[in-house]
Amino acid sequence: MEYQEFIDQKRILVKSAGVTIDQTEVHPLLKDFQRDIVQWACRRGRAAVFADTGLGKTFISLEWARLTGKRTLFVAPLSVARQTARMAPMLGLEVRYVRSQEQVTEDHLLWITNYEMIERFDASAFGAVVLDESSILKAIDGKTRRRLTEMFQGTPHRLCCTATPAPNDLVEIGNHAEFLGINTAAEMQAMFFVNANIEHYVEFAGVRMRRKGSNAGGQEWRLRHHAEEPFYKWMASWAMSIRRPSDLGYSDDGYILPPLNIMPEWLDYTYIPDDRLAFTGFTGIKDFLALLRKTIELRCEAAAARVNADSDQWIVWTYLEDESALAHSLIPDSVEVKGSDSPERKAEMIEAFQDGKYRVLVTKPDIAGFGMNFQNASKQYWVTVRYSWEEWYQAIRRSYRFLQNRPVEIYASLTPQMQEVWDTIQAKEKVAAHMSEQLISHVRRFEMEELNDGASESKTYTARITMRVPQWLKSAA
User: Which residues span the domain enclosing 89?
Assistant: First the structure.
């Protein structure tokens, strides 16, 4: 046996478990690169689509479900669930929103619910499941994540879709691999990662340099240097990562984003915590919340002044209930969508804003910041910026996404004490951008192999030489 053949037999790839379809079977409304992904995902059966915002993950998942031919349950954030049901007729499909298994009937195939309702369903009643905005696997509590994984471990066809599978940590890929039944997160870590001291470094003139004292400060899971190629090859066998059509060899025409302008508004405010003589930084979430509560009026008034100055559509992102209520009261032509609203009201008000019936939407990122299409609004105002980069990225991308044809303006009200929050967001942005670039550049070649060669499978080692028992071992026996 040649050595290369021996190595090929040990490749860690995931076998196909789906159905083979022809591209002509995919709805003509989908773009060429979307058809490629649908065809690949159908063949895989259990797969993930890590595509940036605006690249058509909803259409891809709908077509995947239709062509799989099984009764499918879509699971999505509440606002996204309604939007998916609204978009399905564009492909000639009907997706029915339900809140429990009792509402599911035998005469229909495509159903959708939100993550909060999942425990009310019987997974054995479905042959396929789609997790939309599947990055929630890392955000939700461990109990809910385990429930999802355990519920659908016997479901033959599984699809995960998100733009941010691992925004700051490759280890988070393990959540998706575990749900899809590829490997457990622990198995992935053992194969490709090492638990070592946190690596602190700086980039200087393109050279990665280690800082002094970088062995201090705890430990982290880090990709083994010699395991980089096997890891990305393994990942490409079940996940498709794409930021733009050219990543798969297609033209980017129609997918060029307009300018993005982020403009923080620094508000003059002196803050002295009740238990200190001076502000020396946040000591925890309670300290951060104390500042937010003391500056609600200041930040909401800044938002209202900016939003009321023109007639364009705006999204105003808030965090505290009092912020949301005050911002809504200060902006006359706004609609407020709160967590306490019924699902029906949330969907009705969000759709009304999309249709232009309201000029300003006041809501929270965890209500409408993931998966929604808000290209109708090219301006956003953040009353509160928190430490979560993913929340920041996803919510901005509701407006700043493909098919947006106007420059996007993002404003944020900040006091001097929030400098460390702002710096954290900017630092995480750079880390995430670097990680995304590395992920795409490493995986691109292997993904093209996946798209062009449906026969790529893991190979089983076949012994060709009869094992000989040593004489001394026979004697001992």
Answer: 3-253+431-452
The string of DSSP codes covering 312-378 is S-EEEE--SHHHHHHHHHHSTTEEE--TTS-HHHHHHHHHHHHTTS-SEEEE-HHHHSSS---TT--
Nearest residue to 371 (alpha-carbon basis) of 1, 21, 41, 52: 52
User: What is the model's pLDDT at position 431?
Assistant: 75
Q: Are residues 212 and 287 in the same domain?
A: no
**DSSP H or E stretch at residue 192:** helix 185-192
Report the relative pairing of strands 157-161 and 193-197 from DSSP bridges.
unpaired
pLDDT by residue (tens digit) across 406-432?
A: 999 999 999 999 999 999 898 888 877
Residue 127 lies in a domain: yes
196 lies in the same domain as 332: no
Is residue 384 situated within a structural domain? yes
37 domain residue, yes or no:
yes
What are the phi and psi torsion angles at 266 (to 5°)?
-85, 120
pTM above 0.85, yes or no: no
In the three-class reduction of DSSP (H, G, I as helix; E, B as strand; rest coil), residue 128 is classed as: strand
3 state SS of 124: helix
Whether residues 290 and 184 share a domain: the answer is no
- At a CB cut-off of 8 Å and minimum separation 6, what does 312 contact? 359, 377, 378, 379
Q: What is the mean pLDDT of the chain?
A: 86
Q: What pLDDT, on a 0 to 100 scale, did the predictor assign at position 142?
A: 65
pLDDT greater than 90 at residue 232: no
Indicate if 179 and 224 belong to the same structural domain. yes
Neighbours of 389 (CB within 10 A): 20
Claim to verify: residue 204 and residue 269 sit in the same structural domain: no
Q: What CATH code is carried by the domain that includes residue 325?
A: 3.40.50.300
| Highest-pLDDT range among 11-20, 101-110, 168-177, 270-279 | 101-110
Phi, psi at 362, each rounded to 5°: -110, 115
User: Is 176 within 8 Å of 134 (Cβ atoms)?
Assistant: yes
Shared domain for 28 and 145, answered yes or no, is yes
Neighbour tally for 53: CB within 10 Å? 24
Number of domains in the chain: 2
CA distances from 110 to 156, 204, 370, 446 (A): 16, 52, 22, 32
In terms of domains, do 185 and 284 share one?
Answer: no
Q: Residue 364: which of 330, 393, 391, 404 has the closest Cα?
A: 391
Q: What is the C-alpha to C-alpha distance for residues 190 and 458, in angstroms, rounded to an integer?
A: 19
Decide: 299 and 268 in contact? Cβ < 8 Å: no
Buried b (16+ CB within 10 A) or exposed e, 162-182: bbbbbbeebbbbbbbbbbbbb
Q: Which residue has the higher pLDDT, 150 or 214?
A: 150
State which H helix or E strand residue 80 sits in: helix 78-87
The span from the CA of 421 to the CA of 228, in Å, is 32
Share of the chain above pLDDT 90, in %: 54
Mean pLDDT score, 318-325: 96
